[in-house]
Amino acid sequence: MSNLEIGIWSFPVLLALIFLRVPIGVAMFGVGVVGSVIVNGTPLMMLAQLKHLTYGTFSNYSFSIVPLFLLMGQFATVGGLSKALFKAAEAWMGHRPGGVAMAAIGACAGFGAICGSSLATAATMGQVALPELRRFGCSGSLATGALAAGGTLGILIPPSVILVIYAILTEQNIAKLFSAALLPGLLAAAGYVLAIYVIARLSGAAGSPTERMPYGDRFRMLLRIWPVIAIFAAVIGGIYVGVFTPTEAAAVGAAGTGLVALLNRGLNRQSFRACILGTMSSTGMIFLIILGAAVFNTFLATTRLPQELSVFVATQALNPWLVLVLVLVLYLVFGCVMDSLSMVLLTVPILFPVMSALDFGLTPEEFALWFGVLVLIVVEVGLITPPVGLNLFVINSMAGDVPIGETFRGVMPFVATDLARVVVLVLFPVISLALVRALY
To answer: What's the rounded mean pLDDT across residues 364-377?
Structure first.
């Protein structure tokens, strides 16, 4: 086989290893090493690359943002901020049809503003909201589906670990990417709330509403979440106005959230140790996937597959919008069998140069920001798409008595709103770029 054919065949081999439940980072690392040996005819070149590839990858200063944002989410969890967010959202929306489920979405959006992880958002809000949803008669399918979908707001609303990784891979400004993702993230939350409202009107699956609270009580509930607002303003606002670099903002956010957890008496020696160990575990998993992807992409570069793919697309004179649709569909298909971080690390180094060579009527930087938001959204859809949607299994395992099939059915309306949002953002790039243009 030619080098190009070896590169093409590496993908079915990689998918086969994933189906055999080999960890994705190990699978990419193994295929990259073996493929490189086959292409070069000797292991010496890969061994020489491994000497500097690991250090060269992880000495990137921007990667320090990842553990800091993960630590911020850990502190927010033990600090009791999730419960305060849910109660505040319930005070304002609980009396409406499907209001308790809407409150869960609102709380997920608020928690996502101080936590860059989808799984952490889903798991944390599931602990708080599931008992309340069941107490007010919300069906198991809607309760688990809504929380699984709401968890995705953890990576949609900045700060987002996935966006940081995308920015590093494509050499883009992290602050501008956060700006580009903010409005689409809020649009996602609005779409989920609308889906719940429609379900509540058409069926009794959303359960009964709570009693209407006086406005004075509602504003008092808002005062209880001032730490969330303050941390979000310090982190994201500090980045937008140029007070902090993204790395500095992540450090400020982690320190601020830890201080709030300490003042709320949620942080002691034992919980602090658990937060550090949880952050280390998640960071180690992410960095292993990053290393595996770096080795695999180095092998692909040796086969010249990315370059040949770019030339092929350019010579076919295909409509750029058709290529974009095909790429987004590919992400949706991959989302059914792969986790979000692996998809980004595996595909962006290959597809981004191809897409950047096409003309969408945007500047190169604007295209990179817009494409990053689209990738983020379709990756997020993968988190709630059967059969591998990780958020679905996290929430379903917490529900206990809800069959996984019901969770799959319950999330479908939210997947539909996600797909509709993708169409809107493809047709109107200005939604993603408006805040960037206004601030920069």
So the answer is: 92
